[in-house]
TrEMBL record:
This is CDGSH iron-sulfur domain-containing protein 2 homologue. It comes from Paralvinella palmiformis. It comes from the Eukaryota. Residues 82-121 form the Iron-binding zinc finger CDGSH type domain. Its cofactor is [2Fe-2S] cluster. PANTHER family: CDGSH IRON-SULFUR DOMAIN-CONTAINING PROTEIN 1.
């Protein structure tokens, strides 16, 4: 604790007091090489702290369970590295079939209308892909 107190009360104020911060364009042009390095390191530190705070608190930077971002698929066939369904149009025995694109259907890959609750809950606008077949 004492180390942190010394850092905040002594080291940081001393560092900031010795930092060359130009107040005009003329002063900017007259800064020496070592002062430029010190100023750039200071500005990078501030930028990294600011960026880290935004990453930490901004809702769009939500992390999924593996820390790679928020997954679209919450529960369907998670044991598979990739969920792929193939449809042969010749096998389509109905006039139309709806395939889920929201990953919420209990009958996945078919749509069961769960997208309506999802849209209501989140303000999203997802819906199925509908494949129609002309039956003569
Ligand atoms: S249930 Fe997913 S698109 Fe309809």
């Amino acid at each position: 604790m004492e180390t942190v107190a010394t850092l905040v009360k002594v080291t940081l104020p001393s560092y900031l007091a010795n930092l060359t911060i130009p107040t005009s364009v003329d002063e900017l042009a007259s800064i020496s090489g070592p002062d430029w390095v010190q100023l750039i390191i200071f500005m990078l530190t501030i930028a990294i702290i600011f960026y880290s705070l935004i990453r930490l608190f901004h809702p769009s930077v939500d992390k999924g369970p593996k820390g790679k971002g928020h997954p679209i698929n919450p529960s369907i066939r998670k044991e598979c590295p990739k969920v792929v369904d193939v449809l042969d149009v010749e096998d389509l025995n109905k006039e139309k079939v709806s395939y889920c694109r929201c990953w919420k259907s209990k009958k996945f890959p078919l749509c069961d209308g769960s997208h309506n609750a999802h849209n209501e809950e989140t303000g999203d606008n997802v819906g199925p892909v509908v494949i129609r077949k002309k039956i003569n």
